[in-house]
Amino acid sequence: MLWAVTTGHPRSHRRSRHRLPRLLLAVGLVAALAAAAVLVVPYLLPPGPRPLFQLPVACGETWQAGTYPGHDDYDVDFFPIEGESWGRPVLASYEGTVTVAGINGTLGGRTPDDPDGPRGRGGGYWVKIDHGGRWETQYLHLLEPPLVRVGQRVAQGEQIGRLGSTGNSGAPHLHYEQRRGWEKVEAWFDGQPSGITHDDFEYTVRLTSNNCVSG
Fold first, then answer.
1. C-alpha to C-alpha distance for 79 and 159, rounded to whole angstroms
2. Which H helix or E strand runs over 42?
3. Has residue 87 been placed in a domain?
4. Which residue range forms the structural domain that includes residue 99?
5. Consecutive 10-residue runs of the chain (215 residues): their mean pLDDT?
6. 116: in domain
7. Residue ranges of the alpha helices (H) in 132-181?
8. Which residues cross the membrane (predicted)?
9. How far, CA to CA in Å, does 97 sit from each of 82, 135, 136, 191?
């Protein structure tokens, strides 16, 4: 009489098949947690020392910096005191990596040929730069698409765009911000506070740029 012969252990195979999806799920969960830690942990660390930010305009030029009610605390609007405003170079305040280079809101239709065209919304063409240590700067209302791209490393004083009036802007100017961690802070330039703090009333100061390329 012949007896049926089987090889292996069927129940063991079934348990292995059930364990595999759980193992894959666990591995995926660990990978997701590791990726999240890479993104989140830097924001839980205290900010580093303030970089030696410079004015975002050409070396030696004096510009008017100001604010007005409703502009938000620490927001700075830059207007040139002399010469044409449209198309003036906008420079990186400090070295860093570009994290945003695109459109904030809508562009509107204000151009050098039609300065009274319709306003857009938000910041128009803009750039954001990460300077390390949880410090960043923002540059809004640029004339045209930024001259830099996301992920690009820029040097202090490198041109990132041109002065314009895209977005919610009444005249060609540069809206500028410095941020430390999650919060906006008073902008400092060349180691000195700008003096633009609250927006309780309209006021301006004059600042001269030391954003000069060495050599």
1. 17
2. helix 10-44
3. yes
4. 61-209
5. 49 58 72 55 77 98 97 97 97 98 98 97 98 98 98 98 98 98 96 97 98 76
6. yes
7. none
8. 23-45
9. 31, 11, 9, 21
